[in-house]
Amino acid sequence: MTETTENIELKAFEFMKELSGNVDETQSIKNFTATSEELNSLFNGVALRYLSGKSIFELKGKDTLDFLNRIATNSLKNLQKGQLQRTFFTTEKGRIIDLATVANFEDYNLLICNKENKDKIYSWISRYIIADDVTIKDIQNKYSLLELVGPQSNSFITLLTGSEISEMEANQLKVINTEGMMFFVLKLFDLNGEIKYWLISDQETGKKLIKYIVENKGPFNFNLIGEDAYNLYRIEKGYPAAPEELNDRYNPHELGLINLVDFNKGCYIGQEVIARLDTYQKVQRHLKGVEINSKINVDLPLLLSDKDSNEAGEITSLSYCVNDKKSFGLAFIRKAYIENKIELSVKLNDGQILNVLITKLPMK
Q1: What is the rounded distance in angstroms from the CA atom of residue 341 to the CA atom of residue 145?
Q2: Domains recognised in the chain with CATH numbers
């Protein structure tokens, strides 16, 4: 594998950090403005994020798509030039290795995965390349990956790049040349079916692109977005993240993302378990939203219990909303407790017991 991101200055990300000035010990950008302003853009306007939590692999070789099709849950064999597909990679037991996006650039394919699961993905793919004409290369340091998200994102990117973007179908990519900057635009569905855009460029172009977008935001409800606001946004939308929900403790059924599994394409790793869960309705827990009328700071996952102290599930993500004066979270909850609407609670380290409200997803 190539030199890690941490050892190389990524120009676009460094520029974003300069614009923010608020970076935590993990080098994540916490925020640019008030969290409430960034949330407003995410829910009602258009928001720009640097996807520092993503890693990119380049796969080459005539067998690439056929090979990926054999080890991934979704159909990839007939992915055409300029098309995207989101898919899970799962273990033999049907547990999640990662949720990734495959983009076909004809001469090569990009696999965009979560940085926390990067080493697992690399090892998993390398493990099964035997006689196939497939090579995999870590090219994280080559590209800048930006995201435009929010209900105004389609109008906003059309203003920036022209009408050809609005004419694109979802799950497609195009090369764009605007103001002397060449980059790729990927138009894709978010996990709840909403449209968002990824912008892929080299690092220097990424820096110029960020500057150009900020200077040409016009009348839009636009903001640069840090992790504080986005984490609350993705929890309220019900989007799983790595390593919290996207890990080998859970399967696609439990996440409610079985639409990313193709039951007609033939064998893949983990197929037997996932198919059996579907056929016999053996899924015992589901991802749900939770609300707690308090701000709490605890290590996750946090056990959920009923009034008799029986284990009912666990909270995997949690974020506090100042405006609502509540903590919102994602939790895997046992099916019986959901169906019977049984009251649940959490017990903190100091012995305090707090009631938990179970909600559907998305919350807002």
Answers
A1: 42
A2: 1-280 (3.30.1360.120), 284-364 (2.40.30.110)
